[in-house]
Amino acid sequence: MWDDIADRRGLYDVGMTTADTRSHYFGRCHCGSVQFEVTLSDGLRTARRCNCSMCRMRGAVAVSAAVDGLRVTTGDEHLSSYQFNTRTAKHYFCSICGIYTHHQRRSNPEQYGVNAACLDGISPFDFDEVQVLDGVNHPQDAGPGSKAAVLGVLTFQKI
């Protein structure tokens, strides 16, 4: 469903104002105690938000990476994790400054969602549009093969 919407709206090609087409990034938390490098699955084109209770409160734009595509280079001892509900997803954050860096997804435990704002040179305001997925009605609750519904698109216009 999302691929059809993205193709119609052209989001795969013009969903962000940044011309950055890299897939490999370095990232860090706010205080720099946790640093990592990551290879994104499809560059910044996987940017998304979610309306589940956790994502709604943290408000981050996440991009996708395979679990083996992220490596913590500094400060693994400063990473804390939080799990709730089914305890499948693991949400990682710096124990010093509190910034969410990434999470292992419930919808696909072989993937990380990476906080785009933690990537060097990237801001959540670089994206013209970001899809919002329905995490309240999680696809894992609907059975095998179910996919998250797209609720809408958040837009940012610089004035």
Would you kindly provide a written description of the structure presented here, covering whatever features stand out?
Mean pLDDT is 85; it is low at 1-14. The strands form 2 sheets. A 7-stranded antiparallel β-sheet has the order 1-2-4-8-7-6-5, with no helix packed on it. A 3-stranded mixed β-sheet has the order 3-9-10, with no helix packed on it. It has a single domain, classed as Beta Complex (Metal Binding Protein, Guanine Nucleotide Exchange Factor, Chain A). 14% of the residues lie in helices and 38% in strands. 30% of the residues are buried. The radius of gyration is 15 Å and the shape is globular. The chain starts with a helix and ends with a strand. It has 159 residues and is mainly β. The longest helix has 8 residues, at 2-9. It has 4 helices and 10 strands.
In helices, the fraction of residues equals 10-25%
Q: How many individual domains?
A: 1
The CATH topology annotation reads as Metal Binding Protein, Guanine Nucleotide Exchange Factor, Chain A
Largest pleated sheet: 7 strands, antiparallel
Order of the strands making up the biggest sheet: 1-2-4-8-7-6-5
Distance between the termini: 32 Å
Principal-axes shape call? globular
Output the structural class.
Answer: mainly beta
Number of beta strands: 10
Write down the overall mean pLDDT.
85
- Amount of beta strand: 35-45%
Main CATH class: Mainly Beta
Radius of gyration: 15 Å
CATH architecture: Beta Complex
Number of helices: 4
Give the H and E element order.
HHEEEHEEEEEEHE
* Poorly predicted sequence stretches spanning 5 or more consecutive residues: 1-14
